[in-house]
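Quick illustration for those who missed Monday's session on complexes.
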Amino acid sequence: MQIFEAVGAGWKFGNVTALHPVLFAVSGAMKLIIDTDPGIDDAMAIAYAAAAPEIDLIGLTTVFGNTHIHQSSRNARFLLDKLGLEVPVAEGAAYAVGQSCHDPSDHVHGPEGFGDVTEIPEIGANHAQPASEFLVDMARKHKDELVVCAVGPLTNIAAAIRLDPQFAFNIKRLVIMGGAVYCPGNVTQFAEANIYHDVQAADEVFAVPPQTVLVGLDVTLKTLYETADFEALAERSPNMGGFLRDISRFYLKFYKEVGGLEGCGLHDSTAVIACTHEPMFDMVETGLRVMTEGAEIGATRPDPSRPPVRVCRDVDGAGVVHLFTDRVASLP
Ligand code: RIB
Ligand code: CA
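Prediction with calcium ion bound:
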């Protein structure tokens, strides 16, 4: 596997809206579920969500991806305990649609998902419902209010849509970390990891929801978080920031060795930030299709025949980095 540097000219599509670097004030906390495969940058995103006053984190749903599914759920419960949050963790898919096995991304996230930090304890238990049922029920309960931020393979989201075709219409918004529409991928030249790990599910999801935002490598590799940023964070937030600093060493090494980058992308945190701070992003509107076979498998391609997705094309990267640090540093 190889990571490609996401710079250079991609081809253009649609109209780019103006960049508004000023943050807007949010009245009332946004109800949010993060669908996640923790994962180092997932842990950062969950910490950010816990710290952000605009966000009311009402649940985590877990999915295979960076880790095996049971590790994803165990890591999610461990993080919530560390953050002092009593929030349900509903376990989801172990494999991609139509598959029966999965190779976790150990080379990127370490053997247990948290880099060199291993032997993560099992704390508490998963919610009684599987992820797809939990998502469907929460979307009904919080109709038109719930934002779902999917930062792993889209298997659980596709399952929720299959379980209840109204799901996509009950949620307020689906914000996806995934894809590389105008830049190279990070698993192959064409494919980003979350999309690549379940191409079928991703293509199903882009065929349906009316309120989708895509936060792909087009923007997340413009939010590099460097060693010095982690050190500064750990100084201000010894417990949570210190933990993120410790787990990030492995991740930073990977980015340096494989991508030649001096920091790691705030992939999943950027998607969570897009849930509440849209004006920090330039978006273009286009339908999307995922290549589900062939040499370009996993590529996310504009397709005008599909429902419109708001694709993040540019970002105030320094603003995202600053916001992330500022919020997470408020944690103990
Ligand atoms: O390509 C980045 C995505 O893949 C992130 O969600 C990260 O956690 C990895 O799984
Ligand atoms: Ca992830």
